[in-house]
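I hope you will forgive my troubling you with a question about protein structure. The matter concerns a single protein, recorded as an amino acid sequence and a row of backbone structure tokens. Please examine both parts with care and let me know of anything in them that strikes you as inconsistent. Thank you for your consideration; the sequence and its tokens are set out here:
***
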Amino acid sequence: MASSASSDRSNPVALVTGASSGIGEALAPCFAAAGHDLVLVARSADKLQVLARQLADDHGIKAWVEPADLAQPGAAARLVATLRRKRRRIDVLVNNAGVLVQGPFVGMKRGEAGRMIDLNISGLTALLDELLPAMVARGSGRVLNVASIAAFQPVPTLATYAATKAYVLSLTESLAEELRGTGVTITALCPGITATPMLGQAASANARLSELPAFLVGDVHDVARQGFEACMRGDVICVPGVVNRAAMVASRGTPKWLVRRIGGWIGRQAL
């Protein structure tokens, strides 16, 4: 369903960024099946329109499309201003939009690290800045920030990406305490390697990634389901998959110097 004049308050509304593919595209049906109307955000309007029509037909909900590049300065403020003008109150914010570039930092193209920071950190933070105060004022709301298992340790050859996801995790954990007792919950979804177009793009640039054992690659729909359920429960951290949870626990209990060395060895094998 394309944009209409105003939102019907009979259903809660979830805003999903990065909804045109990957985890975001898989999360949208989870919220639709639970009776949420949707605001779908990504750069690709055509893909969003197809998804919006499918979700409306399958679940009997309303789905609006709002194309935006959240890496651009002021994009979040413009998006929220549009939503306010259309009287669409956001009950759930899903901060999923993100970008990954693999390879040694020194070998990256000029500006690629900045692009990751602009979207993974600045865009996410700007949406929180725009939407979280209203949730607190109402005494209700949920936020699902998509981080990564990479947030728990340094990851050579994914240095900037891992650092941006560490920011997302740290911010989420801090805000969870600040929001305690307000009626607003915030969750960090920390998936491991997941079968998404992002992985496909990385594998096209590095053939070794396509040789990963199947047990290390998560199913995108399972990851989305677990993230959705954690968000609705109000869990602070969700790490899907036994292997990923074990890696998270191990990284937190292992000396930092050893984690760096192990990460460096793994990173060099992947190049």
